[in-house]
């Protein structure tokens, strides 16, 4: 029964790298019948963003990653952190450091000049003298000076870090506020985290956190450091590549199932399987099988997955999703036919909306290239004759096959090629030449609307410019 968490800082909106981390933690907790917690790391009051905090919660609701218990806010736990800082001070495992910023900067410049790694030199580690006046001290932990810090990473195997690479790092600033590594360790320990799944940019933090775990006698969780998501060129993902606010994916017409399916595959796989329902993810996911190397963002794959889910979710669901884009078709008498036809080519909900509107909205203009290519001198008479043929059977025209039964003999009688009739009809009904099947289109619109649109196109002469 794994206990996992996702712990974002509300300094910016949740992006897909963070959502992938949340998904991995969610899957592992749910698969093991454990607990998944959401914790907002908002101790940096100067950088916190209220809108970003709300956006994180909204993103979780949109993709359906439900968490257990209430959201934890670190800003409400300051008394807890200060208690443990005082405990370390009382036990001699931490100490006040009175080194000024100027002294620290001078030390770093000297070390860099000597080609040494910049690090605090421990000058106040065992200080017993009179503290200098006018300096508000920070609190530093006494890090081990010899040996190695060793832990088993669930993805990267055994990690060894020499103790001489970790200095006596700060656990509380001069204003008394605790630092990131300290509060994360305290929270993970007190909330009973068994597994910490996070990006491998946190790998250097882990050694420091283990020092805090051991100083306080806390159990150390299992760590999994997930490689980053790169752009197709192998560089850091930027907004242009897809590292944008998760809710922007909703605005661009992606379904949450598609985004989660896409993200689970960015770093984890099950043979060659590409499509994963949430049930399959829960059944198959194991963080030990996360790839050791970075993954590459693939926009085409995401669009392909989104198109798959658009085709396979219910039409009722699609109609509800389209409401967000101000496309209201729930009351349309041919809603099922309209969606079945329009979703076949749509990669996003925006494309689905555009396809629907191209059918339900009467065209205001006609594609000039299409008109020039397909509207010939004989076309008006041909369309008029075709409409009269439809009128004779208008009461029995309901399905695509009904229109097909009438149209095929008409084409044969007048020795036409299909584009000679179908493209003028498409242009009349939708304004363009790329609309879907003419028979399906006519079944959705019905005789009266077909007659109105074709007559209107003929009256306008297809917007032909007078020569």
TrEMBL record:
Enzyme class per UniProt: ligase
InterPro entries xref list: aa-tRNA-synth_I_cd-bd, aa-tRNA-synth_I_codon-bd_sub2, aa-tRNA-synth_I_CS, aa_tRNA-synth_I_cd-bd_sf, Glu-tRNA-ligase_bac/mito, Glu/Gln-tRNA-synth, Glu/Gln-tRNA-synth_Ib_cat-dom, GluQ/Sye
Chief location category: cytoplasm
GO molecular function: ATP binding; glutamate-tRNA ligase activity; tRNA binding; zinc ion binding
Record-annotated Aminoacyl-tRNA synthetase class I anticodon-binding domain positions: 334-458
Pfam families, per the entry: Anticodon_2, tRNA-synt_1c
Positions of ATP binding: 239
Catalytic activity: tRNA(Glu) + L-glutamate + ATP = L-glutamyl-tRNA(Glu) + AMP + diphosphate; tRNA(Glu) + L-glutamate + ATP = L-glutamyl-tRNA(Gln) + AMP + diphosphate
Keywords: Aminoacyl-tRNA synthetase, ATP-binding, Cytoplasm, Ligase, Nucleotide-binding, Protein biosynthesis
Keyword Transport included in the entry's annotation: no
Motif window: 'HIGH' region: 8-18
Keyword flag Cytoplasm: yes
Sequence motif: 'KMSKS' region, positions: 236-240
Residue ranges constituting the Glutamyl/glutaminyl-tRNA synthetase class Ib catalytic domain according to the UniProt record: 3-304
Highest rank taxon of the organism: Bacteria
Compartments, record wording: Cytoplasm
EC numbers, comma separated: 6.1.1.17
GO CC annotation terms, alphabetical: cytosol
Subunit structure: Monomer.
HAMAP family: Glu_tRNA_synth_type1 (MF_00022)
Family the entry assigns: Belongs to the class-I aminoacyl-tRNA synthetase family. Glutamate--tRNA ligase type 1 subfamily.
PANTHER family the UniProt entry points to: GLUTAMATE--TRNA LIGASE, GLUTAMATE--TRNA LIGASE, MITOCHONDRIAL-RELATED
Protein name: Glutamate--tRNA ligase
Source species of the chain: Malaciobacter molluscorum LMG 25693
């Amino acid at each position: 029964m794994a206990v996992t968490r996702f712990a974002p800082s509300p300094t910016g909106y949740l992006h897909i790298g963070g959502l992938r981390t949340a998904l991995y933690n969610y899957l592992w907790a749910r698969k093991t019948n454990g607990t998944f917690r959401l914790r907002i790391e908002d101790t940096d009051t100067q950088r916190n963003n209220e809108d970003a905090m709300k956006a994180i919660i909204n993103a979780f609701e949109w993709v359906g990653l439900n968490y257990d218990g209430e959201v934890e806010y670190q800003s409400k736990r300051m008394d807890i952190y200060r208690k443990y800082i005082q405990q370390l001070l009382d036990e001699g495992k931490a100490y006040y450091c009175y080194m000024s910023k100027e002294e620290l900067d001078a030390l770093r410049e000297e070390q860099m000049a000597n080609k040494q790694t910049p690090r605090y030199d421990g000058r106040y580690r065992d200080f017993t003298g009179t503290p200098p006046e006018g300096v508000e001290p920070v609190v530093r932990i006494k890090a081990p000076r010899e040996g190695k810090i060793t832990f088993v990473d669930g993805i990267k195997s055994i990690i060894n870090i020499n103790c001489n690479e970790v200095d006596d790092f700060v656990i509380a600033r001069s204003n008394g506020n605790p630092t990131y590594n300290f509060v994360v360790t305290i929270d993970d320990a007190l909330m009973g985290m068994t597994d910490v799944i996070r990006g491998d940019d946190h790998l250097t933090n882990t050694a420091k956190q283990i020092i805090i775990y051991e100083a306080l006698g806390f159990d150390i969780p299992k760590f999994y450091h997930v490689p980053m998501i790169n752009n197709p060129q192998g560089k850091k993902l930027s907004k242009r590549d897809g590292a944008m606010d998760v809710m922007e994916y909703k605005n661009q017409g992606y379904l949450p199932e598609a985004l989660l399916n896409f993200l689970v595959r960015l770093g984890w796989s099950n043979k060659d399987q590409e499509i994963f329902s949430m049930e399959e993810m829960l059944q198959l996911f194991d963080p030990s099988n996360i790839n050791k190397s970075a993954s590459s963002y693939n926009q085409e794959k995401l669009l392909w997955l989104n198109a798959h889910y658009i085709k396979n979710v219910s039409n009722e669901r699609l109609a509800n999703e389209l409401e967000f884009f101000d496309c209201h078709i729930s009351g349309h008498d041919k809603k099922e036919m309209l969606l079945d036809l329009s979703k076949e080519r749509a990669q996003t909900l925006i494309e689905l909306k555009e396809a629907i509107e191209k059918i339900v909205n009467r065209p205001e203009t006609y594609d000039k290239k299409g008109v020039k290519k397909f509207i010939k001198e004989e076309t008006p008479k041909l369309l008029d004759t075709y409409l009269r043929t439809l009128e004779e059977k208008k009461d029995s025209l309901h399905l695509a096959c009904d229109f097909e039964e009438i149209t095929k003999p008409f084409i044969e009688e007048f020795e036409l090629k299909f584009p000679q009739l179908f493209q003028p009809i498409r242009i009349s009904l939708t304004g363009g030449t790329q609309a879907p099947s003419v028979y399906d289109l006519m079944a959705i619109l019905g005789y009266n609307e077909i007659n109105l649109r074709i007559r209107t196109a003929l009256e306008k002469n297809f917007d032909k410019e007078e020569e």
